[in-house]
C-alpha cells in the first residue's frame, strides 16, 4: 500500500497549472527534452509558487505541441527570444551536454537564474567560465543532481556518515550504475561526441557525484575547500571503432581526499543488468545504498556493524515526493532568497548542488577520460 501511495503522490498534481499563486515565479524551458516531464512538469504541478511560463525549441511545432499538452502559456520562436522575456525569472536547461555551456552563459547574461541538467558542461574549463559568469551576474547556477535533495540522501545517509564513532574510518567506496542500452537508439545524444556524449558523462557523472558527496560529508568539506583527487586507473568499455571517442562503459579507480573509490558505469547489452548501488566499507561498518538515484519508488540503506555482526535496514521516503520535487522546491526557495534578501551565499545553502561542485565533478570526469586514453569532451577532434 505504501508503494501505491508513493505512485499516487508522484503522478498526481495540478497538471493544468490552474491553481498557481499570483506571485508565482515564472520559469522558461530551453528545449522539449524527454526529461522535462519528470524533472520539471511533474514536480511543478505540486508547487503553487512556480509557473511554467514558456518554452522554446529548435522545432517550433514541437514546442507548440509540448506547450498544449502541458498547459504552458507561451511559445517562443527560438531560445534567444525566450531569454529576452523580462517576465521569466528562471531557466531550466535540459539541452544536450554539449549545449549546456552556450545557453547557460546566454541565460545568465540575460539575468536569469539557471537550473542546468547534469553534467554541468562538456569539461571543467567550460564549468569554470559558467560559474564565473554566474558570480558576475549575481545569479544562481545550480546543477541538477536531484538525488542529493531527497531525504534518503540529505538526511539519512548524511547522518550515518556523520556518526564517525559508529562507522569508523572509510576504507573504500564502490559505486555502480548500469542501465540497459536497449532503451536508446544508436544515434541517441548520449552516444554523440559533438553533443558531449559518453557513458562517463551520462551515467558516470552520478557515480562521481555520489562519491564526492560521501567523501565531502565524511571529511566535513564543502564546495569552497574540496580535497585533492587522483585518478589511478580508468578503462573505457565497448568503444566502437566507428565511434572511437564514445565509451559505452567505464571502470575507474581513484582517490578522493585520501579515500579510495572504485566506480563502474555502463550502458549494458543485457536487459537484466540494471543496477544502482553504493557500498561504503568502513572500519566498523559496511554501508550499502540501493537505488539512490530514484529513491521515491524504492530504496534501502543497510548498515552492517562489523563489531556486533548486526545489520539494520533504513528507508526514508519523506513525504513520498520525488527527488525532482525536492530539487525544484529548493531551487525556487533559493531564487526567492536571492531576490528578496539579495544573498546568493544564503541561497546556495538551500540549492546546494552549486556550479562550484560542478567544476570538481568535471575535473574528475576530464581526468578519467584522459586516463582511459579518450579525448575530453568539447575538444575538437
From TrEMBL:
UniProt entry keywords in alphabetical sequence: Oxidoreductase
Span of domain Gfo/Idh/MocA-like oxidoreductase N-terminal: 25-142
Membrane found in the keyword field: no
Entry GO MF terms: D-xylose 1-dehydrogenase (NADP+) activity; nucleotide binding; trans-1,2-dihydrobenzene-1,2-diol dehydrogenase activity
Domain of life: Eukaryota
TM regions (residue ranges): none
InterPro entries on file: Gfo/Idh/MocA-like_OxRdtase_N, Gfo/Idh/MocA_domain, NAD(P)-bd_dom_sf
Cross-referenced SUPFAM superfamilies: Glyceraldehyde-3-phosphate dehydrogenase-like, C-terminal domain, NAD(P)-binding Rossmann-fold domains
Reaction catalyzed: (1R,2R)-1,2-dihydrobenzene-1,2-diol + NADP(+) = catechol + NADPH + H(+); D-xylose + NADP(+) = D-xylono-1,5-lactone + NADPH + H(+)
EC number assigned by the record: 1.1.1.179, 1.3.1.20
Keyword Signal recorded: no
Family: Belongs to the Gfo/Idh/MocA family.
Protein name: Trans-1,2-dihydrobenzene-1,2-diol dehydrogenase
Organismal lineage: Eukaryota, Metazoa, Spiralia, Gnathifera, Rotifera
